[in-house]
Amino acid sequence: MRQSPVVETGSYPVTRKPARGRGTLLRLVGAGVMFTVMADTTATTLAVGLMQHGDAGNALPLNDLLWLTSAAFVPIAALLATAGRWADLFGRRRVLIIGLVVFVLGGLATLTVPDWPMVLAARAVQGVGAAAMIPASLAVLLGELPEHQRRGAIALWSSASGVGCLLMQAGGGWLAEGFGWRALFAPVVVVGMLLLLAATWLPPGLPAGRSGARTRPDMLGAVLLAASIGAIVLAISKATSWGVVCAYLAAGALVLLVLSLLRSRRHRVPAVDLTLWRRPGFAWGWLATWGFGVLSYGLLALQPLYLLHLGFPMLEVALWLTPTSVAVAVTAWLGGKVVRKLGPYGLIYVGATACGGSCVVALAQSGPTLWGLAASVGVGVGVGALAPGTSMATTLAAQPHQYASAVGAAVMSRMVGGAVGVATVSVVIGHPFMVGPMGGLASALAVCVAVSVLVGTLALIKMLRMPHATGEVMVLVPRKMLLELRMQLATVAAEADALLPPQPAADPGHAAVPAVPPQLGRGQAHAMRPGSQPRVHGGTRLARTPEGLSSWQ
Known about the structure:
The chain has helices at residues 20-53, 62-65, 67-90, 92-112, 116-144, 150-179, 186-199, 219-237, 239-242, 244-266, 282-309, 314-320, 322-363, 370-395, 403-430, 439-465, 479-498; strands at 3-7, 474-478, 536-537, 540-545, 548-552.
């Protein structure tokens, strides 16, 4: 059946082009949030490495040091979906500002509190703030920009994460060497304060007719959802150290997730927007995003481990990773230019192919060579293409009033996939299935190749099944429905015509009967009778007019 695309705006108003100053501010705040979050994540990675190989760790074991990462990672993953849902319900700027306030306060505590448990608590507070910032920042950006600028905005938002990682890698070593590992978190606090000031000038980001939820949202369902996702991520992250406890934790998380979904089916303002999953293409984009998380986090965790295994100090490791970060930032920005030709899934396919091919090249190397450097750049190109591709595939599949919910669900999927990727790489390195002096690293690279093939295959199947899917906010309306609507309009027009004054008769003794055009048969003359309803004959609509018989296709 032939189908025609019709733009669906839902309850969100048709977005007009914002003023130049406001459009620039929207882009700066949206990109600044991702810049800050990724810089903070990179700072955490550098801090763990510096404390592990220096005196700053105060002889803490590695498992305790890794909690510096988990303390922020778990609340981010747990609260992303809920924060995105609340941003759509209560206002995106409001949630963004709250997230920035919490993030800055957590950062200030990280810089000042003396005890290690308090540092971990401060990092958890920063994770809560980041979970609110991420979906609200992109949603307020997309909601205020016209449709033709949204792909470029997503590309800018994605490339900002690479820039944040790059700058922190370039300057983090100098900060830590001169002022200690806590100084790594000082730049993100300063940028967070600037973003908080700029966010007060943003539009409120509420859909038309949605000044807030009229019914209290499902708070219990939100708590169940956050607890389930947090428990899943924690179980995956600690699978190698907690053993069977993680199995019980994962089982409990699944029970909590099922309870949250059951409540979402019955509540008027559910914690999970189930209608989002009925949008065309959203589930496919969500799966691709999960695979991207497994692949990207696995590769980004594998690269420093590989360089540390070769004996490079941590500061030089950061410099070796710089080409990867540059490639991520540049490719993500260029992705917004080429996605109109390739589509989101075409961009995903290119990114998966680049990652897989780079891993194959790296498998053939035994040390840092020019080919190894090229493979590192190839990984950056692949990750840079996957980031905007997966973001567009999920976010633009949603209706405008669901943007924050879609971003939260997508980034949550990426975070859960990232936990799986890091845990898998850690397990495979410790229990390799390939032999040789670097069997563990080679085994992990082989796993990344397999994941790349899976993500690329998923994108290819999607393109073959639905080649017209471009990620736009559109629905396909069957042509038959449009024809029926046209017929109804024609009937209304004919009935209105029947109410017009009758044409004066030419012969007083005979009723005026319009002549039948030569192209009409006897069976079509019924359409000429006064007061009769128009008929369809061979795809032609007939109706009586004061001048005679008219027809249209």
